[in-house]
Amino acid sequence: MGTRRVLVTGCSSGIGLAVAARLAKDELRRFKVVATMRDLGKRGPLEKAAGDSLNKTLEIKQLDACSESSIRECVNSLPDRRVDVLVNNAGLGMIGPLECQSIDAMKELFDTNFFGLARLVKEVLPDMKRRQSGHIVVMSSVMGTQGLLFNDVYSASKFAVEGFCESLAVQALKFNIKTTLVEPGPVVTEFERKVYEDAESMDLSGTDKETAKIFREMYLPYSKKIFASLGQIPEEVAEQTVKVITDKEPPLRHQTNRLYMPMTALKHADPTGRLPLDSFYKMTFKHDKVFNATLAMLHLLKRIGGKK
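Request: output the structure for the sequence above.
Response:
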């Protein structure tokens, strides 16, 4: 297989930036990376990360996942419109009590997280079908398989992404097109930091006092502990994404964080949904000491694993 052109979205920071830079620096020079972002004014960090690969194995282009014309213009600018691998990464976050979220904000999140993916796939899929080859790689989340407290809307958008890809994968396979959902757990990025920073100053007047207290005094502190204990850095996710892209038989789903797998495994262990629901409820509201002890143990395992 020759050099593959990889179109990556959301490359101004975080996972998208790390994936684009890692692919561009591939020692075997297997990839030609088209790293895209909505605002080219934010290209500085990517240019720095790309280093010598800039304008050689990596080029930066403008692409707004919320605009069909922007997507088409970007794809049309590529030789033969060829995209061998699409890495859909652009996304928005949202946490907090449902009563405090506006419908307009929810629509904006879905416009990027779900419809942005749909627009991109709709643009590149016909050409992939015609060539009888391609790989659609989608940055999903463990929250696309297991909903979590105060992540109602974000999780819903990722569930939509998972259903879309799982359905499309069957048809795509007929045309020799692979589909992979990359499912990170907590990742320490500027994206996540901003989401939680905004949450700490969030107007909670739209909900009751008990819910506001649970969010401020329980959820936010717990989340910080989870990120400290289980959080990956973007480069770790990027490394695993590259492995998925280079796999001859890539999986439909790939979780990047082994330490998070026991939590998602609960859902598959009981089709009725009672086991994960009961477990998460008790960990959150009844057994906080057990929760903290579990996180401490997982943090230790992560440190041990990192030293190998």
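The CA atoms of residues 148 and 280 lie 8 Å apart.
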